[in-house]
Amino acid sequence: RLRVPLALAALPAMAAGEDGPPAPQDAWGDFWLFRFLVNAAGYASIVVPGFLLIQYFKRKNYLETGRGICFPVIKSCVFGSEAKSAHQEDGSLPARAEPAESSTARQVFKLLFCAAGLQASYLTWGVLQERVMTRTYGATDTDPGEKFKDSQFLVFMNRILAFTVAGLYCALTKQPRHGAPMYKYSFASLSNILSSWCQYEALKYISFPTQVLAKASKVIPVMMMGKLVSRKSYEYWEYLTAALISVGVSMFLLSSAPNRHVSTVTTFSGVVLLAGYIVFDSFTSNWQDALFTYKMSPVQMMFGVNVFSCLFTVGSLLEQGALLESVRFMARHSEFTAHAVLLSVCSACGQLFIFYTISQFGAAVFTIIMTLRQAFAILLSCLIYGHTVTVVGGLGVALVFVALFLRVYARSRMKKRSKKLPPGESPVQKV
């Protein structure tokens, strides 16, 4: 009779790759799948009642029959206030306005400012992310210290600051009249929360360089899904670069030395969490792309998504009692407090730099900057946290980034060529 409970209790330890049995009170609490299900249950306690309310107002035809002080709020949340607009050419952001007269020196300064802002924000964010999730706080000669375990609280910290920044920006600047039903932001918000949670949790099982390479290679499953599900066709260079990325990632993962540090060993849990990150992140970008058919600015999108992100995460944290526990951890470790706040500041500032860079220089320049950022992030992580990379692994990393730069170059060429096509022709679908 005791065999099944004992086997279940040992499962989290085996998934985490631990040698000894965990303490009974922490066995399931430290198992990532259990935490994922608990978080999902917390989100469902908010999503399900909201879904039922939306269906009720739609069946009741509230848009025609509703009156009273709550009517504008319900109309904005459930029905929206404006019809869809024509879809933007790039599918996500309004076309950038080219300045009539702008000196070369000023454009170079803007480009350097954008590049420096993106690099500083996301390199600092990556270093802090690895520090918070993989190192202990309060360690002394006699006390090994304790690790912070609740990834959802870090997601909440990031989203509450991003919500505040986006709200202030929208309040202080002129924005388009908002027309999208507010509830539609919740889908992108939920997938965004889950992708961020998977990203934080994955660092407990794999190294940061492995995580960065996995993000760079997510174009491969996107192309596979497009081919199988949507019957999309791709250019030859897209297949070539996808194959190069696959070979480069394989070289890096298979070049692990026998004495490699335990933090850099890819585990099954880490692979599953990375797959979850890629799936949820892909859904987020596609859903946001559909939402941009409404007239809105990128900062309005940032605000709408983060409103629901704050609602979901704080509701789930309160239901679990994890919010107070995380606050107590912050009170015990002032260093963690500084890291968590700086992590959130870098995340919010990075999003603003993304919007500004794309509006000023376009998506191609932005992609080049962020690709360089990924390469620098791997180098910085290896220098600070001592990750070892073999010669073959280094060649694999280089191959991945060469393929990414080839994609940027080929896509820019295809975009220029598509502008010269006759009105009746369209270029091949690209990812």
From TrEMBL:
Answer whether the UniProt record assigns the keyword NAD to this protein: no
Q: How does it sit in the membrane?
A: Multi-pass membrane protein
Kindly list the residue ranges recorded as spanning the membrane.
Answer: 31-54, 108-128, 153-172, 236-255, 261-280, 301-318, 338-356, 363-386, 392-410
Q: Name one GO molecular function term.
A: 3'-phosphoadenosine 5'-phosphosulfate transmembrane transporter activity
Under the cellular component aspect of Gene Ontology, which terms does the record hold? endoplasmic reticulum membrane; Golgi membrane
Keywords for this protein: Membrane, Signal, Transmembrane, Transmembrane helix, Transport
Main location (coarse class): membrane
The stretch of residues making up the signal peptide is 1-17
User: Where is the protein localized?
Assistant: Membrane
| Key word Mitochondrion present | no
Q: Name one Pfam family in it.
A: UAA
User: Family assignment?
Assistant: Belongs to the nucleotide-sugar transporter family. SLC35B subfamily.
- Protein name as catalogued: Adenosine 3'-phospho 5'-phosphosulfate transporter 1
What organism is recorded for this protein? Answer: Eudromia elegans
Q: Please state the gene responsible for encoding this protein.
A: Slc35b2
